[in-house]
Write a structure and sequence with these properties.
mainly alpha, 5 helices, globular
Length: 69
């Protein structure tokens, strides 16, 4: 399944506090840590930072990193 940057950004915004964007990318272990520590609000802050970082990347950079052929 080809991962799209726009869906990643949506998941980071809506479900970042529980690691939804990490599960989408297939980073299950990171998603588990986000889920376990969501009550500290730290995963939510990290998800917002990742949202900004990935919104500044181009679709080509995202594809090169997460959609290998």
């Amino acid at each position: 399944m080809k991962k799209q940057r726009i869906f990643f950004l949506f998941y980071a915004l809506a479900f970042g506090w529980v690691g939804g964007h990490r599960y989408y990318l297939g980073h299950t272990l990171a998603g588990v840590f986000y889920t376990l520590f969501f009550w500290t609000f730290i995963p939510g802050v990290i998800a917002l930072v990742e949202l900004v970082i990935y919104s500044l990347k181009s679709d080509e950079e995202f594809d090169a990193a997460y959609n290998r052929k």
